[in-house]
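Why run this: before we spend reagent on co-expression, it is cheaper to look at a predicted model of the complex and decide which construct boundaries make sense. The entries below are exactly what would go into the expression plan.
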Amino acid sequence: MTLNTLSPGQSCRVKSVRGSGPTYQRLLEMGLIPDTEVQVVRLAPMGDPMEVQLHGYYLSLRKNEAAMVEIENG
Amino acid sequence: MDNRPALAARAVAVVGNPNTGKTTLFNALTGLKQRTGNFPGCTVEKKTGRIQLENNTVEAIDLPGTYSLAAVSLDELVVPEVLLGVREGVEPVGGILVVADASTLHRNLYLVTQLMELGRPMVMALNMMDLALERGLEIDIETLSRRLGFPVVPTHAGKAEGLAELRLELRRLMDGRIKPPKPELFRDFYDRITRFADEEAGDRRLPLPPALVFRALFDESGFAAQHLGEWFGEDFRTRLMQLRRELEAEHGKLIELEARERYTWVRELLDKVIRKPEHKIVTRSERIDKFLTHKVWGVLTLFVVMTVLFQTIYAWAGPLMDGIEGLIGALGGAVGSLLPEGMLRSLVVDGIVAGVGAVLVFLPQILLLFLFIAVLEDFGYMARAAFLMDRIFSKVGLSGKSLIPLLSSFACAIPGIMATRTIPHPRDRFTTILVAPLMSCSARLPVYVIMIAAFIPQKQVLGIFGLQGLTLLGMYLVGVVVAVPTAWILKKTLLKGETPPFLMELPSYKRPNPRTVGIRVYQSGMAFVTRAGTVILAVTVVVWAMAYFPRSGEIEDNYAALRIEAEAQHMMARAGLLESFDPQLAPLSLERMERVLKENPQLAVLNDDKPPVSGDPALQALYADWRQLDAGYQEKLAELDSRESGDYLRDSYLGRMGQVMEPLVVPLGWDWRIGMATIASFPAREIIIATLGVIFNLGADMDEESVELKQALKTAVGADGNKLFSIPVALSIMVFFALCAQCAATLATIRKETDSWRWPVLSFTYMTSLAYLAAFGVFHLTTALGWG
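The model came back. Tokens follow.
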């Protein structure tokens, strides 16, 4: 499962980040590392990007970026 | 590891994540005496100032906010390179003041762990303590400081709390009493990197800091490796990549390793340092966000905010701009009256004063827009606006961050282009800069207004829409319709590259800090006046000279003769009036007439502004005729003046250029006069109105409402004896002006913002080509449709 499939209000735990390149690197640097708890807060009016909460802060990311984040529930 | 002894700080670099209140803190520490510019060789803004310490000062450099020392774009290399003292043209840094947001300390410490490996003494300002309190976070600052190994000072920059303590620590830093931190992470890596760097540096005297090699090995973007490759050659880069492959074979993906190691270290460091509340507290910021990012209310609010912003720069700046224009006009008049008629007066009034005016007139829009942006940004709203609108812009390869710059450009491209500084990714920023001038700005409006009023019939379409209004709307749409594919093509070709990450923090809302806002507004105004202003002034003077010279003596003599003739006729007519009033006065010579007018008490009234009170009907009639005669004479003189300026302009280098270039503009349905007026309007589009006024012998004080100019345009005749203007010609001119880059101020601003002539030249070339092709197409299409 990947982060982009979640709906607002749902939480998950990061399993890994797939891919390569600057976006991949920035996702990790912003704290999307294994075992991080992430909650989806809301989606933008046109369904993209999404806003998530992690490490006590709020992050906006596009759906195709969220699709790089493998998650598991809980 | 770089284990050089602690240096007495030469300059302090201020570093931190975005949204940590770093700029507010920098302003609070340095005061108003700041210098702004760019870091050499890139478009990253460099701000420096001096921090007053107890009895001396230290130089401070404000570095752009960043989440990591890894560079996603070439520009972002500035931060690590300045900190490591290897950035050309930037003084070496002796110490680091890192600003961290206490309410999101976990993520902030990621950057801190990277900074700790640079071998520089550090001090941390733990800012936003108020937000941490609101979230119910308790932070044990003493333990935090002990575990990090350098001083941590809690601050609230907006209220100037903690600044005295911070200055004290900076003082210690400067005196060399703070040692560089001892990093615990990646020791093995640094050992290997240091050996590698020592071998590579060898006897070459180039600095090769291990931390930069670390970035070159770890970063996915490859910019650090590329930059080092430029200094040390391709062989070096090959060996670097070899080392990278070895390390990856041992550890897996390096960047994943880095993130995991650092965040693990941070988690352990913060253990028992931060105490979180047992129940999650819903903060005020979260409650505001429920509304401002709501699918309906959020979008509506954004719409209202954009409308007010647009109204501010479009309409409310108007009176201020009129005021400045009035002042400049008055100044020109005052200075002009002190100078004798001639070249010097024309240079000062029409060249220099007009040029300075052309610069200053943009100030209200720039200041108001930046007031708006600074308030919205400091409040935290800009990120929300980008969040709400990102989807639309992502379709052409841009992001929501382009919303404000592009919208502002509908009022004026100059503040719009300056506002692209809020776009973090250079390729997105340049694309936005290149399409921003396509938005129909307020300077195009006069051109549309006069052409529409003169040539578009006042018809109703479909019963409810006025054709004139629809034409105006069409002109505004032309720019947008062209901008969409232009942006898309630019992102596919010239500014092609990997889509930059759109990971954006949505920071906590906070009350905008008046000082931060004020300084931002002031700096944007100064930046425009001092840097773009010089180019604008120079262009205005050059175009003035082209329109003024060569000033043929023949035209001057010709009009001097015409004026004498007119005066003689006027005097004869006056004598005629006097003689028919009192036949005894005949014959009147010029001298005799003057004497009569002076000595005859009855006739003295002719010089009064009021008609005679006495009931003599003959005198009353004489008075009326006399006045009429005078008015006619004045009109005749004004007409001669206008015709003379027209002759001078036709004979000027500009006029000759227009005539030489006529074959180029004939396909657009224009003649050389329109072509010349277009060239003359290079400094600013609206100048075309005044130029057309001069060329049709109406004088320069024409505006878009002038009935005479409309009439002159309607009746103007081309070389073939037919009417010069028609609906296709008017549309061709309007479309040309909608798409062209006839605005020296915009080009000067692009030059300044991109720090290169390449982009303004490209803007001018592509916009002028587009404008030409579109005008050509519109002219021939509408002619074929029989609209002529």
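The interface with chain B takes residues 17, 20-31, 33-34, 36, 42, 44-49, 51, 55-62, 65 of chain A (CB under 8 Å). The mean pLDDT of chain A is 93. Bring this page to Monday's planning discussion.
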